[in-house]
Write a sequence for this structure.
């Protein structure tokens, strides 16, 4: 791998790390991300259960 490619990958990793740290550091944003993630998880579980009930019938 060329040296320029290694430096570019390193710089991208540093920028992403700083960006992620800033997102985590702001509490309200982090809390919103957690709320949205929980809601999406619940919806996903509900869809899977509904598909199972539709496929196999009620337990």
């Amino acid at each position: 791998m060329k040296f320029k490619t290694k430096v570019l990958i390193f710089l991208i990793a540093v920028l992403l790390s700083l960006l992620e740290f800033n997102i985590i550091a702001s509490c309200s944003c982090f809390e919103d991300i957690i709320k949205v993630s929980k809601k999406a998880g619940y919806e996903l579980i509900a869809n899977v259960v509904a598909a199972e009930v539709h496929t196999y019938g009620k337990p």
In short: The mean pLDDT is 80. The first helix runs from residue 3 to 25. Residues 3-56 form one domain.
